[in-house]
Design goal:
The protein is globular, with a radius of gyration of 18 Å. The model has no long low-confidence stretch (mean pLDDT 94). The protein has 299 residues and is an alpha/beta fold. The longest helix is centred in the C-terminal third of the chain and has 16 residues, at 266-281. It is built from ten helices and 13 strands. The relative contact order is 0.14. The chain is 36% helix and 23% strand.
Length: 299
């Protein structure tokens, strides 16, 4: 397996997280692309923003972070996406997501087709598939990607913007599934699959049903469980003082993808992903500036 750098795509929403103290750039695919780039790969966001001041500010922020905006489309009619974020006493967020925004209308075009064919990994979720147009574009991108490219479905359930059809079609198009311990029973129930006797059994049921390579179940401060057809690994997580958990899951996914592309064993995937996700949870916002110390530990 090559050492990279690899071309890694965050496909879906890019938006402003509106915290009580101000706004921060976010959206799971954009966060993922940012962290993939921090870890040394070519992280590229694919999304759509409005032709408004919030959209222009997103482009400025991406440029400051060294992230290309070539594949961030501009919508002349719809606003840039926003999400109101409220944090509880543990720093765990709840989200109120604005409907009918620019990323709901992501357009399939020749540029995206060429990018898909030249990508090594694609990370996508359920939220950006809430509208028919963006869902069609995401499916077209996945279909155009090379057969050996990683297709990582980070479920990321939000409010009621998911269906059994969306979940089953996304899983059928994926090689890796990532979800958390609250999402696991919801996904199984929504898909009409029988309740398992354990978390690992639930992961294995999804693995078999959709012929996945890997299922990653995150357990918050208790670490994660990684399950392959013939192996599994558990990591207890790292203790940190939480600032907020926004973006920590996306950082986890980026580290997981980074090491998976390089053929690392499950134990290494689990350790690196937990360490990076925990560090981001200890920082404010979804896209903190990584220190040399955390990069040494993760890489």
């Amino acid at each position: 397996m090559a050492d990279g750098p690899f071309r890694v795509i965050g496909l879906g929403e890019i938006l402003w997280d509106l915290f009580p103290e101000g706004k921060k750039l976010g959206g799971a695919p954009a966060n993922f692309a940012y962290h993939a780039r921090v870890l040394g790969d070519e992280g590229i966001p694919v999304s759509r923003v409005g032709a408004d001041e919030l959209g222009l500010e997103i482009r400025r922020r991406l440029a400051e972070a060294g992230i290309p905006d070539r594949y961030v489309q501009s919508d002349p009619n719809r606003p840039t996406g926003t999400v109101r974020v409220e944090l509880d006493s543990r720093g765990v967020p709840s989200f109120t997501i604005t409907p009918e925004v620019a990323w709901d209308y992501l357009e399939w075009n020749a540029d995206l087709q060429r990018l898909a064919a030249d990508s090594d990994a694609v990370c996508f979720g359920s939220l950006a598939q809430r509208s028919p147009q963006s869902r069609r574009t995401i499916r077209a991108f996945l279909a155009a990607a090379r057969r050996e490219a990683l297709r990582l479905f980070d479920v990321n359930l939000r409010q009621s913007w998911y269906t059994a059809e969306c979940l089953s079609e996304s899983l059928a198009a994926s090689s890796i599934l990532k979800l958390n311990d609250e999402e696991l029973p919801v996904v199984l129930r929504t898909l009409g699959l029988s309740a398992p006797s354990s978390r690992e059994d639930g992961c294995r049921l999804l693995l078999r049903t959709f012929q996945l390579q890997l299922v990653c179940l995150t357990l918050g401060e208790r670490g994660c469980l990684l399950v392959e057809p013939n192996a599994s690994a558990r990591h207890p997580g790292f203790r940190v003082t939480v600032a907020d958990t926004v973006g920590s899951g996306d950082a986890f996914t980026a580290a997981l993808c980074h090491h998976r592309l390089r053929g690392a064993p499950l134990e290494r995937l689990a350790q690196a992903a937990n360490r990076y996700g925990a560090w981001v949870a200890s920082q404010a916002g979804a896209m903190p500036q990584a220190t040399a110390e955390i990069l040494r530990a993760v890489l």
